Amino acid sequence: LFRGGRYLDIGTGTGDLVFEILDQSGNVLIDGIDPAEQMLEVAKDKAEKRELGDSVSFFMADALDLPMESNTYDGIVSGFCLRNIERRQKALGEMLRVLKPGGMLVILEAIRPENPLVRLGYNLYTPLVPIIGRMLGGGSAYKYLVNSIGDFPQPGTVTHMFSAAGFSSVQFEPLTFGIVCIFSGKKQ
């Protein structure tokens, strides 16, 4: 839970993670950024309907060149975004820069499971995802989803990237049989 302070959601999309934080926490300010203007318009509409006022703002920004001053945020969250960033190490450096000392970065990401049995099931299922997507009218997006997860580094590599960017207390926690993982690190 977030207790007061200012937070950033990178790759906010339609703002669902922002709204979840606001539902669970009081007295916080949250900025949501995304490079997709259409997604941000949906997020802004949702915020307006919820009458959130100044507690939330959504705007276009690039994780590789964050327009905020250094030491701005008490925490940063990101859900299912890091795998879509080509220069992840640079993005992690930017996240560290805009965090206040003591601030936490928490990233939720889909990964290939490491457990051999779970990976077998995953490998049998994932080729079906683009086929199902084509039937629903979005085949290329679903193919990209499978490919982006497949290209994403394993947890040990990601935690090394956090450390190389300057984060301390770096951890990862696998969820849902290792198909999703929470990565976290702290700015000294």
| Number of beta strands | 7
Number of helices: 7
Q: Could you give a short account of the major beta sheet?
A: 7 strands, mixed
Biggest sheet strand order reads 3-2-1-4-5-7-6
Distance between the termini: 20 Å
The run of helices and strands is: EHEHEEHEHHHHEE
Measured as a percent range, the helix fraction is 40-55%
β-sheet strand percentage = 25-35%
Residue stretches low in confidence (pLDDT < 50, at least 5 long) are none
User: Globular, elongated, flat, extended or rod-shaped: what is the shape?
Assistant: globular
The secondary structure category is alpha/beta
Question: What's the Cα radius of gyration?
Answer: 17 Å
Task: Name the features.
alpha/beta; 188 residues; 7-stranded mixed beta sheet; 7 helices; 7 strands
